[in-house]
Each structure stands twice: as structure tokens, then as C-alpha cells.
Specification:
CATH architecture: Roll
Shape: globular
Oligomer: single chain
Helix content: 10-25%
CATH superfamily: Mannose-Binding Protein A, subunit A
Radius of gyration: 22 Å
CATH class: Alpha Beta
Length: about 230
């Protein structure tokens, strides 16, 4: 009888173990992710500046936020598009809500759209990814401080026919170019563009992943919660 009870106990233990192993793992939540309303993507989609348009870029922000338990916000990529094919331009500043925004550690980046485009709190130390990590900048290997924006310093789109958004974020070849900003506020000089977080210089050599890497980029984006 003792052996029978022992065997039943082992069977029950095995059954419990199997049930536990079959249960879905809980979603991982990074420290501070519940209150996070701004982050720099830890990686780009991998197709250069072809983000799948604004819709694809927003989806990328949303998926990364969901992976750390912060998917319940209306995430928008900070990107402008240019007028083309009868469609009007879109300003990055008009896509991201009213603020305030804070990173994964609760540090305030800006309290309003006006604050964001004036004197904001974005630096290499505060421009964190969705997981709360810093992004490599000038002096690091590799340097990935070029963040895609397609925007002027005030967050508006560029006028004219010259491509500054890699075909409104649909190109990944040798054609086109995109405006980028420096999240670490550092460049080759000490002039305002070199220190600009959203409008520093154009990419060179096209819109491919290799072209982005050649000037210090990796196809990264700024993501803001618009709600």
C-alpha cells in the first residue's frame, strides 16, 4: 500500500510539472516600463530606412513596447513624411501627442511639444531603449547615434522634391537619403546641427542598412506615447 501511495504521489508530481511547463510564460516587464512614454528602439527593422512607411514604423515601436510590458499605449514613431503622390506632408511633432514624456527610468525627456523642440532633457544618458539601456554614441563601437527622423529642427517636414525621408520610409537601396538626429548631442563639430537630436545631417550612399551604418546609424527610431 505504501508503494502504491508513493507511486501515485510521483505521478501527481510529474503531472504538475508537465502542467507547469506547458503554461505560457508571463510577459516580461522591465523596471519602469509601466510609466515609460518615450524610448529609442533597441534595434531597427533591419531593412535600412524601409520601415514600411509610418504604419510600419509605428508597429515597430508598438512591438518593442509590448515585449517589455508597455504595449498598452498609443506608440508613434517620431518621423515626418514629405508631400508626394497627392498626399500632404506629415510633421513628426504632430504625431506624438502633447506630453509629458519620460524614459524607462522615469527621467523626464520633455513636458510638452514646445519643450521637446526647445530645451529638452534628451542626452546619451537619458535617451534609453525600451529595456532601459543606453544607446551607443560617438566614441563607442559601433556608433549608432544617428536616429531616423526626416525632420527639421522644429519637428516639421521638409518641403520640396529633394528626398529627405528615404521615399517616405519605403526605400532600402542606393537611392534617396534621410535626415537623422544625434541622440548623444555630439558630432564632428560644435555647431548646432552636430548637437541636434532630430536634424543633424542626411544619410549618405542611399537608404540601405550599410548606408545607414556608414554615417553612424542602425535604423533606430524615437518612439513616443501619444496618449
Amino acid at each position: 500500500m505504501v508503494r502504491t501511495i508513493f507511486g501515485a504521489g510521483v505521478g501527481a508530481a510529474i503531472s504538475v510539472a508537465v502542467l507547469l511547463s506547458a503554461s505560457p510564460a508571463p510577459a516580461q516587464t522591465s523596471a519602469g516600463s509601466a510609466g515609460m512614454s518615450f524610448f529609442i528602439t533597441s534595434a531597427g527593422p533591419g531593412k535600412g530606412a524601409d520601415l514600411g512607411g509610418l504604419e510600419g514604423a509605428d508597429r515597430h515601436c508598438r512591438q518593442l513596447a509590448q515585449a517589455v510590458g508597455a504595449g498598452g499605449r498609443d506608440w508613434k514613431a517620431y518621423l515626418s513624411t514629405q508631400a508626394a503622390d497627392g498626399r500632404p506632408a506629415v510633421n513628426a511633432r504632430d504625431r506624438i501627442g502633447a506630453g509629458p514624456w519620460q524614459n524607462a527610468k522615469g527621467q523626464v525627456i520633455a513636458r510638452s511639444v514646445e519643450d521637446l523642440h526647445a530645451t529638452n532633457g534628451l542626452t546619451k544618458q537619458t535617451g534609453l531603449t525600451e529595456t532601459g539601456e543606453t544607446v551607443k554614441g560617438r566614441g563607442d563601437t559601433p556608433n549608432t547615434h544617428d536616429i531616423l527622423t526626416g525632420s527639421q529642427p522644429d519637428g516639421t517636414a521638409f518641403a520640396g522634391a529633394e528626398d529627405r525621408t528615404c521615399g517616405n520610409w519605403t526605400r532600402s537601396g542606393a537611392e534617396g537619403a534621410a535626415m537623422v538626429g544625434h541622440h548623444d548631442r555630439m558630432g564632428l563639430g560644435d555647431d548646432p546641427p552636430a548637437k541636434s537630436w532630430n536634424s543633424s545631417h542626411l544619410t549618405r550612399g542611399g537608404c540601405s542598412q550599410d548606408a545607414l551604418k556608414s554615417t553612424g546609424g542602425a535604423g533606430l527610431l524615437y518612439c513616443f506615447a501619444a496618449d
